[in-house]
Specification:
The chain is an alpha+beta fold. The protein has one domain. The chain is built from 14 helices and four strands. It has helices at about 5-25, 25-35, 40-65, 75-100, 105-120, 150-155, 160-175, 175-205, 205-245, 250-265, 265-275, 295-305, 310-315, 320-330; strands at about 100-105, 125-130, 135-140, 145-150. It is globular and about 65 Å long. It starts with 6 loop residues before the first helix and ends with a helix.
């Protein structure tokens, strides 16, 4: 039976997301507030990466120690890895077809220029249809791509476009697709460990297995919160590359313009929110802003905007106000 039709699988997913929402609205903001600004970006990524790997290893070890041999860990790892690997390999082809990606000599020249500034091999430049956005994708089979929507090209100045492209090339430079694939496997493995333990408890009639399974499921969503936080740090890291390529002011104005557009046209934001590839986009988070025509005063206003902590902790991207303030802190 397919997992998506398994009532137990659905129940565990709903339970996990409820716990994630509860933590994101209570505990997580307080913890983040205590540590905010205490470490550099690089140190924060290193600490969080070690935490994710260490906690995940400990949880898997404890589950195996207490559960015995009621399932095959290797089988679970292979299953999760194969699902994610197939998606990783197929996604460039799906993206090219879904978004009608077309090579653009004009955009390629801009990508080449920015790539040379950042000291990397230029990826392939393609134009896709859709509201203002940009994203990086690709793998060793298809090569690397930077996609920019046709509406984005019309909205940004040359310097702002270079900043956005620098951000996307930064994802390639930092190997974010591979890094996030690796970290994303860990909560999935822990979740399926718990899921299989609960299934085993139903046939074995052992309450201890069920309790351990539920604990593993809850732990998987705790690890997922850490993975989301790590993803947000990678977005800051890519913003740094955009600022390095075209100046932090250009990066700020580009983000502010995109941000403003989606506030004025919320229907387009709904398109972004429901897109299966939304985690790739440079923009995937909305906060209030007055106008799609951005001036210096608008950028400063966005920086001071309040951030919804629940939305932030459940997002792969940091909120635009925080990204603008981060860019201010760069010594460029």
């Amino acid at each position: 039976m397919l997992l998506i039709f398994d009532p137990l699988y659905i129940m565990l997913g709903v339970l996990g997301y409820f716990i994630m929402f509860l933590l994101a609205s209570t505990v997580a903001p307080k913890i983040a507030g205590r540590f905010a600004g205490r470490f550099s970006l690089y140190t924060s990524m290193a600490i969080l990466g070690v935490m994710i790997l260490g906690i995940s290893t400990l949880i898997i070890y404890l589950v195996l120690s207490f559960a015995g041999y009621y399932f095959s860990l290797l089988g679970i790892v292979i299953f999760v890895l194969m699902v994610n690997l197939l998606m990783y390999l197929a996604s460039p082809y799906i993206i090219n077809m879904s978004y009608s990606a077309k090579p653009s000599p004009e955009l390629q020249r801009v990508v080449d220029t920015v790539a040379n500034r950042l000291g990397v091999k230029p990826p392939k430049a393609v134009i896709v249809r859709g509201p203002p956005n940009a994203f990086a994708y690709g793998n060793f089979l298809t090569g690397k791509f930077v996609a920019v929507t046709d509406s984005m090209l019309k909205m940004l100045s040359k310097e702002e476009l270079e900043a956005v492209i620098g951000h996307e090339i930064g994802h390639h430079k930092h190997r974010d697709n591979a890094v996030m694939l690796l970290f994303g496997l860990l909560p999935s493995i822990i979740f399926y460990l718990g899921y299989m333990l609960i299934h085993s408890s139903l046939s074995e009639r052992r309450n201890q297995l069920a309790l351990l399974g539920f604990a593993a499921v809850i732990a998987s969503f705790l690890v997922q919160i850490l993975v989301l936080a790590f993803s947000r740090l990678r977005e800051y890291y890519a913003d740094f590359e955009g600022a390095l390529a075209a100046g932090k002011r250009s990066m700020q104005y580009a983000l502010a313009k995109i941000h403003a557009f989606y506030h004025r046209y919320p229907d387009y934001h709904e398109m972004i929110a429901s897109d299966k590839f939304r985690t790739l986009f440079i923009y995937a988070f909305v906060q209030a802003v007055a106008s799609p025509y951005v001036a210096y005063i608008d950028v400063e206003s966005i920086k001071r905007a309040k951030v919804n902590p629940v939305e932030e902790f459940l997002s792969t991207h940091p909120p635009i106000p925080k990204r603008l303030r981060f860019l201010d802190s760069l010594p460029l």
